[in-house]
Amino acid sequence: MSAVGMLSTLGITLATDAYGPIADNAGGIAEMAELEERVRETTDALDALGNTTAATGKGFAIGSAVLTSLSLLAAFKDKAGITTVDIGDPVVLSGVLFGGERRIMCA
Fold first, then answer.
1. How many CB atoms lie within 10 A of CB 41?
2. Cα separation, 47 vs 33, whole angstroms
3. Is the pTM of this model over 0.85?
4. Of 29, 27, 18, the residue nearest 51 (C-alpha)
5. Using one digit for the tens of pLDDT, what is the confidence trace for 24-70?
């Protein structure tokens, strides 16, 4: 349910994430068109803001993906009748999250 709630704001998240490349392209166009220096300064400031909004959007997407994958894992566990592993146990859940993260940290 919480993953669906996070996905309900998908439109805003995508718009926020798309802002960065648009601002970056505006800076490139201003540079290629050899516009005044103040135009480039303005587009650089907007590009920095775009990088921040993109980072925020990515964190939101990762959080949503984790909640969705945990929901799918819990549904599979219930449907398959697995009783030896309890994904609701905080120790097991922490192990799943840290174990999945470990692969990325060592790569």
1. 12
2. 17
3. no
4. 18
5. 888 889 889 999 999 988 988 888 888 887 777 778 778 878 888 88
User: Rounded to whole angstroms, how far apart are CA atoms 105 and 95?
Assistant: 15
- Which contacts (CB < 8 Å, 24+ apart) does range 12-16 have? 13/57, 13/60, 13/61, 14/57, 16/53, 16/54, 16/56, 16/57
- The CA-atom distances, in angstroms, between 26 and each of 30, 36, 87 are 6, 13, 47
Look up residue 25 and give its amino acid: N
Which amino acid is located at 21 in the chain? Answer: P
Whether 50 contacts 22, CB under 8 Å: yes
